[in-house]
Amino acid sequence: MRIRLLAGASVLVVVLGVAAFVFIEGWSFLDALYMTITTLATTGFGEVRPLDVSGRVLTLALIVAGIGLIVTSGAVFAQVIQEGVIGERGRRKRMQRRIEALKDHFIICAYGRVGRTVAREFEAEGIPFVVIDRLIDLEPEMSRDGITYLIADPTHEHVLREAGIDRARGLVSAVDDDAENVYITLTARSLNPEVYIVARAADESTAEKLYKAGADRVISPYVSSGRHMALLALRPQVVDYIEVESEKAGALRLEEVVIDSGSDLIGKDLAALCEEGGCLVLRRADGHTFTNPEASTRLEEGDLLVLLGESKGSKTFERA
């Protein structure tokens, strides 16, 4: 806005100067324009024609106006650079290019306490993701954390499209407001029927609405944390064993694997996949579930397996 005002003022001064030389001194348009520009620029090439008293007063006024415009322009551009407007636009364009390069990624809606935790887990797993949050105050923090982000309202359809919802693997809606989570879920499902959606529900009664809106899984942080605390109190050793993020079980990894069409594992024994790691659960495409299946079990298209093994150097997860 300041730059536009400055440009408008410069054009106005030039127009007034040309008009004054034309009507007061009787000069041609080209002579008046040349005199106005050289005077405003304070280049000092000399007078085009001899000036009378009114012409000299006009020239002095243009010199003062030119100096004022130069000083004002310097101050405005210095302030623009200081505020980082130019750098900000460049950063936004670079961020958009990063988002456009993403594929098979996750979209995290909101960078609050829940969203930050999800982002850290994705980073640890090397999963690409983009965060959408409307709060511009969070931009320095997200930039400092080195994540890909959008400062926008995730409830808007065009924002989800900009985040690549059409090519995304999944979406996590972690907004504090349940109504917004329902709307985000509904919009995301309409834009991409195949995307996997996990939504947050502060109120348990919202869970049913989220499922109807298209969520695949609904999580209530308060209910989940309560159950987790109960399990820690009742079965602490079991929880330590299955929690792959804990320090005691940091070398373990739980993984969900789907045998897709075209997989070279179709028709092979389970032992071809699980050498060191163990298969805890096998669910067939028809819904039948087997716990601790035999190593001789033949793998079929559409099978879903839950594997447990070493997180580093495991051939099990490399094959999966």
Strand residues, percent: 5-15%
- Examine the coordinates and then state which fold CATH places here, giving the name of the CATH topology of the largest domain: Rossmann fold
Q: Based on CA inertia axes, which overall geometry fits?
A: elongated
CATH superfamily of the largest domain: NAD(P)-binding Rossmann-like Domain
Task: Work out the helicity level.
Answer: 40-55%
| Topology pattern, helix = H, strand = E | HHHHEHEHEHEHEHEHHEEEEH
Q: For the terminal residues, how far apart are their CA atoms?
A: 56 Å
Q: On the 0-100 scale, what is the average pLDDT?
A: 80
Q: How is this structure best described in words?
A:
There is one protein chain. It is built from twelve helices and ten strands. The protein is elongated and about 105 Å long. The chain is 49% helix and 15% strand. Strands 3-2-1-4-5-6 form a six-stranded parallel β-sheet, sandwiched between helices. A four-stranded antiparallel β-sheet has the order 7-10-8-9, with no helix packed on it. It has three domains: 82 residues, Helix Hairpins (Orthogonal Bundle); 135 residues, NAD(P)-binding Rossmann-like Domain (Rossmann fold), CATH 3.40.50.720; 85 residues, Alpha-Beta Plaits (2-Layer Sandwich), CATH 3.30.70. The protein is α/β, with parallel strands linked by helices and 320 residues long.
